[in-house]
Specification:
Layout (H helix, E strand, L loop, with lengths): L13 E2 L2 H4 L10 H13 L10 H5 L9 E5 L5 H8 L3 E6 L2 H13 L4 E5 L12 E7 L5 H14 E12 L18 H7 L4 E14 L3 E13 L12
The chain binds S-adenosylmethionine.
S-adenosylmethionine (SAM) binds next to loops.
Length: 240
């Protein structure tokens, strides 16, 4: 999926514009200024994180479902969502930056797949409960007040037996990329707490060398979590 950068030529169908998804009179949890900053970043440099999926995600191919529904929270420009759709999943991608979603629509059209694109603040947006066989959170670096509701939404969205895939920058000295401060980096203990109730299949942290677009290039401290919501027991209940 490598190719030259282009301004988006195609406006995808986008549901739930951020403004209208919020109750009237309710201030957004995430400051609009933060969304504007993301918009400016995407406008200044297209394909910030590249057009190819995360190398770790590709490595999970044998365990990821090939049918059913996937949800990507903070999907950005579509690199991971398009790859999942090409593998057969029906993918919903949520992000609050319209410029990024427009590029996701473009990438999907080039790959001849369809994505459901939702423009929303994920700290406010509520997914259909139990609606997804796979939930993706890739480099969604949120401070605690936003991380907690976003992770709660991710758990709610998972169907029994569904997989959660999270990759993020971890605390540690800043090397080549990632947030400059630790408040929006995640350590394994925080993730274990946020996703308690899920069965951890893989949880690791350490140095990695990234080569994903201009923004994710070089050495960084990374945390990776693969977890499964327990399947229903014989009586249709979630085991405790
Ligand atoms: C570091 S980028 C990662 C993009 C993508 N997941 C990837 O790995 O290529 C973080 C993304 O999260 C989005 N984002 C951050 N906070 C958000 C929020 N509260 N609601 C929706 N999207 C958000 C940004 O617009 C941006 O696209």
């Amino acid at each position: 999926m490598d190719g030259k950068d282009d301004a988006p030529r195609l406006r995808p169908e986008v549901q739930n514009p951020v403004g209208s998804s919020l109750p009237a009179g309710d201030a957004p949890h995430t400051a609009p200024a933060w969304r504007d900053r993301w918009q400016e970043r995407y406008q200044a440099a297209p394909w910030l994180f590249g057009r190819n999926p995360s190398a770790w995600l590709i490595g999970l191919d044998p365990i990821l479902p090939r049918q059913g529904r996937a949800l990507s929270l903070g999907e950005g420009e579509g690199r991971n969502a398009v790859w999942l759709a090409q593998r057969g999943l029906s993918v919903t991608a949520v992000d609050f930056a319209p410029v990024a979603l427009a590029r996701a629509g473009l990438l999907a059209a080039e790959a001849c797949v369809r994505l459901t694109l939702i423009e929303a603040d994920i700290t406010q947006w509520r997914p259909p409960a139990g609606g997804f066989d796979l939930v993706l959170l890739m480099f969604l670096q949120l401070p605690p007040a936003e991380r907690v509701p976003a992770h709660r939404a991710a758990v709610e969205a998972l169907a029994p037996g569904g997989l959660l895939v999270l990759e993020a920058f971890a605390p540690g000295p800043w090397r080549d990329c990632g947030p400059k401060t630790d408040d929006a980096r995640y350590d394994p203990a925080t993730l274990q707490h946020d996703f308690r109730g899920l069965t951890v299949l893989e949880l690791m942290t350490g140095l990695a060398v990234l080569g994903e677009g201009e923004a994710h290039r070089g050495e960084a401290s990374i945390v990776r979590l693969l977890a499964r919501r327990p399947p229903l027991d014989g009586r249709g209940h979630t085991p405790r």
